Amino acid sequence: MLTLGRTSAYMNSKFLQILILFCGLLTVPTVGRATETPALWRAGRTCSDEFRKSVLWVPKQDWSPRRLAYFARYLATDHAAEIYGALSRTKPVNGRVYVKMYEDTQMTVWAIKWEQNGTGIHDHMLSDAGIYVMKGYIIENRFQPPASAPIETNRYAKGDILEVPKGTVHSVSGDGVTLHIYLPKLDVMTNYQVNPSGLLVPVGQEQDNAP
What we know:
This protein is an alpha+beta fold and about 210 residues long. It has a single domain, classed as Jelly Rolls (Sandwich). The chain has helices at about 1-20, 40-45, 50-55, 65-80, 80-90; strands spanning about 95-105, 110-120, 120-125, 130-145, 150-155, 160-165, 170-185, 190-195, 200-205. The strands form two sheets. Strands 1, 2, 4, 5, 6 and 7 form a six-stranded antiparallel beta sheet that branches. It has a three-stranded antiparallel beta sheet with strand order 3-8-9, with no helix packed on it. The protein is globular and about 50 Å long.
């Protein structure tokens, strides 16, 4: 009876997680699954087979940033131990720890540990993003170039989600852990700086080394 009870509780937990993912999201994409080539999977993933199966179980092309954020919450809830473990085994770069958990031809999944630091001002070009705060907090500043002052500043705490539509120019800082999903997969970002005239302008692009 004890075994049956634990099995029932586990199934109920999985069912609730799926409900969380789809709650309030009534438009179901009618597209095929991602193409996951073995070479790209080996080169672009840090995750276990269980994490990979969770990513691939449903089609994701054309998902909105909100739906990506709910899916990030689902993955973070279901695979928290694996995500924290991957971060703990990774050395910080520029004051942050970041791990590419997974990538295929459609999407990229990053885990980031923030240690009271942040990014520069950037965009994700053609990629939408959904972010889930697993621990601590992050602060996002959004910009509308060429104005150099933020047009919006928001703080997100543990349990919050953040939607980042493609083309959004922003910076992120904080102290905590977040899980990020990018669709289409994040290949290139544009960096911005304030020029001598006080205008926020693009200053170049970089490959997807960290979001």
